[in-house]
Amino acid sequence: MTLAVVIGAHGIGGEVRLKVFAENFGAYKSFNDGALMLKSARAGNNGTIARFAEVADRNAAEAMRGTELTVPRSSLPPLDDGEYYHTDLIGLAVVSTDGESIGRVVAIDNFGAGDVIEIERPTGKRFMVPMRAEAVPEWDADRLVVEASFAVE
């Protein structure tokens, strides 16, 4: 599961800037099957600033740009009812409450008021619905159900 991605170098000492996707990023110390060991992480002006034991200088930090930092799914905390990991929703088939096949989940964004699910129809057109009970009454490992009134073109 990807928890962050390296977006650039920070300073000359080998620190990197990260775009973090998980609230509990700092709870993990080993990434990419043990290839990277986190020594420290702190908030920065443009992303989280992190230091890895294996990254000694700015050149090595720059070379990491675009690297995804992953942990095994088994290391993630269990979910409570109504919670989900974004990665579990990406790619799910989407159907309406009327039973119509709508498309697939292609992205999840959060613009400040909660998650918004982006769905791509088979025609390539995309639309968004809020990830709230009135718009998405149910989902499971196989499909996501959207209230029919939210799925109109």
Q: How are the secondary structure elements laid out?
A:
Layout: E1 2-10, E2 15-20, E3 30-31, E4 36-44, E5 47-52, H1 58-63, E6 68-70, H2 86-89, E7 93-96, E8 101-110, E9 115-120, E10 126-130, E11 138-139, E12 143-146
Parallel strand pairs: 7-12
Antiparallel strand pairs: 1-2, 1-6, 2-5, 3-4, 4-5, 7-8, 8-9, 9-10, 11-12
Number of strands: 12
Number of helical stretches of at least 4 residues: 2
Name the poorly predicted regions.
none
Principal-axes geometry comes out as: elongated
Structural class: mainly beta
Describe the structure.
This protein is mainly beta. Helix content is about 5%, strand content about 45%. It is built from two helices and twelve strands, in the order E-E-E-E-E-H-E-H-E-E-E-E-E-E. It has helices at about 60-65, 85-90, and strands at about 1-10, 15-20, 30, 35-45, 45-50, 70, 95, 100-110, 115-120, 125-130, 140, 145. Strands 3-4-5-2-1-6 form a six-stranded antiparallel sheet. The chain is elongated, with a radius of gyration of 19 Å. The model has no long low-confidence stretch (mean pLDDT about 95).
